[in-house]
UniProtKB/TrEMBL annotation:
<dbReference type="InterPro" id="IPR016181">
    <property type="entry name" value="Acyl_CoA_acyltransferase"/>
</dbReference>
<dbReference type="GO" id="GO:0016747">
    <property type="term" value="F:acyltransferase activity, transferring groups other than amino-acyl groups"/>
</dbReference>
<dbReference type="Pfam" id="PF13673">
    <property type="entry name" value="Acetyltransf_10"/>
</dbReference>
<feature type="domain" description="N-acetyltransferase">
    <location>
        <begin position="1"/>
        <end position="153"/>
    </location>
</feature>
<protein>
    <submittedName>
        <fullName>GNAT family N-acetyltransferase</fullName>
    </submittedName>
</protein>
<dbReference type="InterPro" id="IPR052564">
    <property type="entry name" value="N-acetyltrans/Recomb-assoc"/>
</dbReference>
<dbReference type="InterPro" id="IPR000182">
    <property type="entry name" value="GNAT_dom"/>
</dbReference>
<keyword id="KW-0808">Transferase</keyword>
Amino acid sequence: MIVRELEKQERKYALDIIWSVFCMDVAEVYEQEGIDTFREYLKQENIDQLCDSGELLMFGVFEQGELEGTISLQRRGHICNYYVRRSCQGKGAGRLLFDYAKRYCKEELHKTIMTVDAAPEAVKKYIHMGMKPIDEMQMIHGKCYVPMATEIL
């Protein structure tokens, strides 16, 4: 498996993975407002604008040329859109993405902390990767999440 920054034409496939896994694993704890807001955010033209401006960095993990998962970083060191195809979960793809993002935050963005707003069902996975909750569960604009962070050494 390899991890690299996604090319513009690959973003669509990443967005398909994000939406599919979100609907199966995350949407049930969101209110309709949160689902609608997330869907609007994931529109191709919005993501392209964020990536083309440098505000958002999208990476993918590939196995035999197939995109298995994706992680996005905001320049402030905040993870967003971290999703792995269900059929590829538990095989190391997610760990590779996480480690790559952490290394990128340190080496390219010069950050000492990486953060995420974790969906409730993902909190244990993030703890397993070294992140810690920094606040209680939040429900803001229909989005349910736990703010988490990890130091980058």
